[in-house]
Structures are given as C-alpha cells and as structure tokens.
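Practice problem. Given the sequence and the SMILES for zinc ion, write out the predicted structure.
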Amino acid sequence: MPLLIKSTSFTKKRQVIAVTSRHGIQAIETAYARRLRSAVDAVFADRLAEILDGYESGILSIDSAQNMATAFQQEAERQLSFLAQDATFQWFQRIDKFAANKFTSSIKNAMGIDAQSILSQSIYDELLETGIAQNVSLIRNLSPEAYQDVRKALLADFQGVGLPGDAKSLSGAIKDILGSTKRRASVIARDQTAKMNSQMAQERQVDAGVTYYQWRTAGDQRVVGNPSGLYPKGNAKHMNHFDRNGKIFAWNDPPSDGHPGEAIMCRCIALAVLNPRKMKIQEG
Ligand SMILES: [Zn+2]
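Answer key:
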C-alpha cells in the first residue's frame, strides 16, 4: 500500500501528505484506563465500606458519617494525586514515543527523510509539564465528585427519601458511586489520550514548518455526521466531522470545535501537508 498520496490541490506546489494513523493508540489508552480504575479501587473501596458499615451498624450518626466522608475526601485527594503522578508520567512517556514514531515514519514515508533530528526537546518538556498537571488535577477531582455523591446518598437514606439513581439500598448506592467513579476514570484516560496525541501532532508539525493538515476521520459508523452511521447529525460540542474528511485546514485557523482530536471523544487525526520548501528539514 503506497503511503505517499499526492494532494490534488497542492500537487503543483510539490506538496505531499504525510499519512499516519491512530493505530496502536488504543493499547496506551486501555493500559492507562486500567491503571486509573485500579487506583480508584485502591483509594475508595475500603473507605466507602468503612463509612457504610459504621453508619448501617449505628456506630456512626448521620453527622459523623458525613464528617467521615469529608475527611476521607481530602485523604483520597492526596492519595490520588500521588498515584496519578506516577501513572501519568508513564502514560506520557508511552504516548510521546508513539506520537514521535508516527510523526517521523510518516515524514520518512512521504519525503524519504529522517525527521528524528527535529523532534524538539522544548515541546516535550512543555507538554510533559502541562499534560501531567492537567491529568493529575482531573484524577484528584474524582474524590470530591465521589464523596459529594456519598454525602447525598447518606442524607437521602437518613431522610428516607429516594436514593440517587435507581439504587434500592444504601449499599447499592455506594456500589454505584464506586462504579461511576471508575467509569469517569476511564473517560479521563480515553479523552486525555486522544487530546495529548493530537496536541503532540500539532506541536511537532507546526515546529517542523507545517502550516496545513488534511482532516482524517476514523472512517467508521461512529464518525459524527456519517449519514449512514450511528450519529448522522453533529452538535455544538462535536460538529460534523464526516464532512471534514479529506479537507485541508490551517493549524492557525481551527474550526470552532477545535483541531482533530480536540472535540470530546473525537478520534480524528491531522495528516501533515508537507511542503519541502517551507520545512525546517530539507530533502537529501
Ligand atoms: Zn472527530
């Protein structure tokens, strides 16, 4: 399969499109999600059980159960921050290696040159710092979200009103909270992996002198806007990406919902339009 395609609108200017894919990113996302879910288990499961047991056995009044939830919330935030530092650092290393390989091999295939030398250390440093800070903050925030739900469930049980969701018992409600906290952790893993991958692509391309990219969707039924797919209509958060497939965009002029990979759950990627005369690297 040829990896070099000539873009019809740019052929005359000797521009080519560096074809790449998201293939392989799934494994990074899955490993990260698994790690975050197990951190959630380690941090929440025993403490939630302790509150539930204390309250249900009558050892804890509703007030002391609520206070315990508040104290545990702060402890859990600290512990999550600690676990997240390590998990996000490893995640970042993997995704950086992945994105760098995709970038250099796509340029090699399109232009026959080795782009290894233009991988800038400052881009790595900047993304490492901002990426880890952002992820740690999102992960730490799982705690206030979870314990707010715990306090609500305790109060609803105490007042004898309906429990949150469709839980039939307090222990069921607590179990639901643990489950939804794990699901939130998976969403963070999925969303942040796509965003970091897309940000790396953008920074590296712009740094290499790439001005334009070609939009590429995942090409399946889940692409928003695909008339015969699952989501034929776009919305404000995630516009019609099906229509953008194959079109050329400028890095300095993003669509209103962002470059590929920036809209929530977006799996699109940006294929660099390479103009050898404008790039930092030269052929031969
Ligand atoms: Zn998309």
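Check your answer against the key. Residues 217, 241, 263, 266-268 surround zinc ion (CB under 6 Å).
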